[in-house]
Amino acid sequence: MSDVLNVPEIFGSDVFNEATMKQRLPADVYLAWKHCVTTGSQLPLDVANEIAEAMKVWATQKGATHYTHWFQPMTGITAEKHDSFISPTGDGRVIMEFSGKELVRGEPDASSFPSGGLRATFEARGYTAWDPTSCAFVKDGSLYIPTCFFSYTGQSLDKKTPLLRSIDEVSREAVRILRLFGDEETQRVIPSVGAEQEYFLLPKDLYAQREDLRLTGRTLFGAQPPKGQELDDHYFGTIRTRVSSFMKDLDEQLWRLGILSKTKHNEGAPCQHELAPIYTDVNTACDANQLIMEIMKKCAAKHNLVCLLHEKPFDGVNGSGKHNNWSLSTDSGKNLFSPGKTPSQNARFLVFLAAFIAGVDEYQDFLRCTVATAGNDHRLGANEAPPAIISIFLGDELNGIIHSIIEGTNYIEPEKSMLRIGVDVLPAIPKDTTDRNRTSPLAFTGNKFEFRMLGSSQSIAGPNIALNTIMAEELAKFADALEGAKDFDAQLQKLVSQTLMEHKRIIFSGNGYSQEWKEEAAARGLSNLASAAEALPTYASDKNIDLVTRHGIFTEEEFRARYVIHMEAYNKIVNIEARTMVDMALHQIMPAALHYTHDLCRGMESKQKMMVSSRAEKALAEKLSAGTDALYDHIESLRFSLGAVPKEAVSAASYYHDVVIPAMQDLRREADVLESLTDKSYWPYPTYSDLLYY
Ligand code: ADP
Ligand code: MG
């Protein structure tokens, strides 16, 4: 049985992980590396040289001929440029070489990535620096070295650098709190993330026939098929053979790369699936999620499938998101969002919980912005995904506890209160406060928060930078208030109950999809930024800039650059979609409908000669003619609207949202009616039935 996969043996076999380093590096070099990683200090060049040599030997044994500094520019996907290990010996031959300098630093130039104005052309060169905290790996004949990407002037041009900064920051502030609870051991607190990834798979040949899918990743036209997802027969259903062999192949590739792919199943919509990895530290989780998305696409192609990561490939069935399960734990593995057994542990738990609640309430808009994209606009608030309003779901039991803490301060004298948070009297908090409220954007699920607003195609870096930073901010405030308190218990009691009181408006247990919630949220003063065009202009607010610069996550320029890039991306995406629609409507849909109408009329003519009734043809031809006339008008309006887009980015975004998108919807509606009237053999591309029920 040689084809049985030995998972423990292949797991991580293509990764230069800690075990491999321990095995292949001299003990002092390994320890020097370990020291740098745990203390965040710089790696001496002689150590880097030894690591580079060991990496090269290991990688070439795995068939690598090249190395690449792998980085995560602000496009949201990854970038790589490959150099071979060859070095001439002077006698017409080569040897394979790789130095510490080449490992640690690269100059990919890469001047064509969006920089949001951070790089003028005269200083366009970009640099990469090795991130020794995330493992190098071999893939497709190259040694991949995870790196940070920055400009000549040292400004971050990527998503990894600010993520690493936010990890350090939340760790620093969390450790301050732990010290107050008498924890002298913990050196680092680490955000952990498990990101559940949804995706669609379609047959490659059908996909190739649709310009909208090829250019924009989603269908811009398509009449509703007779069957949608109303029977719920796909969710967790039997996985078809072609898909399951894709999944098997995918898992194997991910495992080789040390990615903890754990769960796979069919999702709600036809052709929709999900992959969930086991959670890990957020830096690794972010690298892994990028690899998962990339390998899903490549692996699908091998199986004659196409993997769609778009947030809304099809109208009428669910779109795809990414659930970002986030928690904090100590370097010895203690989860700080786990309600404990003792009152002291519970007090600590409540401090972290209160800080989280305060941070989310205070920085709702910031969090909202991190998931604001053109693609995600189709999901958020569309009754299949969380609303655009941020709120936190805690579950009944935790809600009860929080309310009694708040009320305790109000109505019961602290001495008599049964719910003193102090270290002595606190009821045990039940552990299984699990949640099944799927309408909540941010749910507490026992020992972690599940942030459910992420789009399926986006990098998880942005939302996690925000979660780490707002948490650092609130923990810092708490630490400031508690350090040096005369009566720690009393001060803690006051702080937690006051915080909960001030921020309780963000807690909501009801149906997030309902109209009443929108009204109630407005009454509570919660923000409701319904679209990316509304959300993104709030991104670079003074309040957010103050937050991120104070914690050293971004400089003001770096942060503004992200804002510019997000705005531009939104505008460009809607523009491409609109132009694709005009193109398809004019060159494919209109001709098909006209052709069919023409043939109907020809048929009528010959029937009339034979004195045969042609009532059906006439009725159809008339409907089609009215439809093509209307289609023409809508093409013209959309074209006209595209000619009048304002130059300035914020005005352009609201123009796209208020004028262009409605014109796109009008055009689609008309085209879909024509599709439903036209003989299928005339229709220029596969229909929803063809695509979703292949
Ligand atoms: P769901 O009910 O949403 O499908 P699961 O129980 O399958 O949730 O878990 C979802 C994800 O949460 C998985 O990736 C899992 O590894 C991750 N997860 C579990 N515990 C934690 C934790 N403490 N911190 C972060 N992520 C976690
Ligand atoms: Mg989930």
Structure description:
The chain is of the alpha+beta class and 694 residues long. It has helices at residues 7-10, 18-24, 27-39, 45-61, 100-104, 160-180, 204-208, 211-216, 241-256, 282-302, 343-362, 364-369, 396-411, 461-482, 488-503, 515-524, 532-535, 542-550, 556-609, 615-642, 649-677, 688-692, and strands spanning 15-16, 66-70, 82-84, 86-88, 94-96, 105-109, 126-130, 136-139, 142-151, 189-203, 261-266, 272-277, 280-281, 305-308, 321-330, 392-393, 442-444, 449-455. The strands form three sheets. Strands 10, 11, 12, 13, 14, 15, 16, 17 and 18 form a nine-stranded mixed sheet that branches. Strand 8 and strand 9 form a beta hairpin. Helix 6 packs parallel to helix 14. The protein is globular, with a radius of gyration of 28 Å. Bound molecules: adenosine-5'-diphosphate and magnesium ion. Adenosine-5'-diphosphate is lined by residues 192-194, 196, 263, 276-279, 323, 325-327, 335, 447-448.
Features:
binds magnesium ion, 7-stranded mixed β-sheet, binds adenosine-5'-diphosphate, 694 residues, alpha+beta, 9-stranded mixed β-sheet
